[in-house]
Amino acid sequence: MKSVVETLNPTRVRLAVEVPFAELESNIQSAYKRIAAQVTVPGFRKGKVPPMVIDQRIGRPAVLEEAVNEAIPQLYQDAMRENELTPLAQPEIDSPSFGEGEDLKFTAEVTVKPKIELPEWEGLEVQVDDIEVGDDDLGERLDVLRARFGTLATVERAAADGDFVQIDLNATNDGEPVEGGQASGVSYQIGRGGMVEGLDEALAGMNAGDSKTFRTTLVGTHDGEEVDVEVTVNAVKEQQLPELDDEFAQLASEFDTLDELRADIREQALNSKRIEQAMAARDKVLEQLIANAGDVPLPEELITAQVEDHLADGHGDDDHRAEFEENLRGNLKQQFILDELVKAENIEVSQDELSSYIIQQAMRSRIDPNQLAQQLVDQGNLPAVVADVARGKALALAVEKAKVTDASGNAVELDRLREDGTLAEPGEVEGVAAPAVDGSFEFAELDDDSVAEAADESAEAGDSDESDEKKA
Question: CA torsion 253→255→258→259, rounded to 10°?
């Protein structure tokens, strides 16, 4: 087989492939076997029909067509690998030129990952904010803790911000009930948001027994539909928080005194700030890496297709379109740069790392990890996940090699940061800590061979879906 690449633009190529007839012999024999298993010929058992009879009954051209249809996908992949091209979408393959004794010739146009130079990535210098834990941080955390142990008491007054109300809702459009737009006995905290736009404003000042109708725009199933919503307040309740004293400390924690509880909460806040600082360092290293890369060619055909697909259901305005496209372009650029670092440093993904990643994603989605793993295998998305994990490792390596300081000029010791935000003794841990995951968790579907195969696939073939709202 020989192949020639014509570069149409930095992210689009035309691949011309030519294969000698003799190299297709195995495909021709395979075609005979498949046809023999499908046809019924008197005097022959199914699957035992000889090639000569098939040629007579079906025709040799039909056999050759079957052979070509089987051969082209593998030949295309071999040609892509031979020319070190990574596809980002499905190819457009023309009708092949082929006949008895002739070489097989076909061309394929495909969107590919651009060839870029890896920017300078070692020793990047970034600055992050100082860590400060003030009284406001402590007060917010104490308020959250107090709210967990608070009680609700019915009050005979108008509802105000922060109050809990029990309400009934009824949405109508031109006097007709909106499907799914009715609810009764709903408990809602005024000011919390997230239910119906305009509800907080309507509830302020209402008393138990009051009803009010307001105009709003729905989201979800009836996204964009303007309706009238009648809200009826059944009860107004005030949240009563426990006093901040030693008794509360004993109720809400393992500590005996409020001072001990305050000290522990302050330490928790400090740990959270350290993790936030590490994430800020990661983001700034990535920003610097992207800046060093300069202009990176992007696949305009792919971007246009994904934007149109995202907006196909009619939701979103011009501002939403622009925001989605900007994020998509940024994500693609990140991926291309980190992929180059993965290749340059020969970064690989282990079974444990892949399992840990899937467990984390499953926890966020609140589904069983094994179920998620099976979905990834069934839907063919495993290579995209492997690529994502590899990019994360590449970015972590860049952060590890970076010089990170805070606003005061102090070195930020990310190599001592544990997953919970505490600091280890020097030399105890290496690198930025990963989220806690039980590494002993096993996936029956994801054995080492599956991981290796997925890693190979992710290196050889792109996934046009992986760039849609995925972060490196």
Answer: -130
Q: Quick one: CA torsion of 68, 71, 76, 79, rounded to 10 degrees?
A: -110
Look at residue 320 in the predicted model and tell me its pLDDT.
86
Tokens of 113: 């990952």
Dihedral (CA of 32, 35, 37, 39) sign? negative
Please name the amino acid found at residue 406. D
- CATH of residue 360's domain is 1.10.3120
For residue 21 the two structure tokens come to 């007839």
Which domain range does residue 434 map to?
258-461
Which domain CATH number covers 183? 3.10.50.40
Domain end position, chosen among 207, 240, 273: 240
Residues 6+ apart with CB under 8 A from 223: 315
pTM of the model: 0.75
CA–CA gap between residue 197 and residue 180 (Å, rounded): 16
Q: Which helix (H) or strand (E) holds 63?
A: helix 60-82
Is there a single domain that holds both residue 217 and residue 265? no
Q: How far is 253 from 245, CA to CA, in rounded Å?
A: 12
Average pLDDT on 375-404 reads 93
- Under the banding of pLDDT at 50, 70 and 90, the label for residue 180 is confident
Strands 403-406 and 125-128, sheet pairing: parallel
Indicate whether 212 belongs to any domain: yes
Point out the domain boundary residue: 57, 91, 111. 111
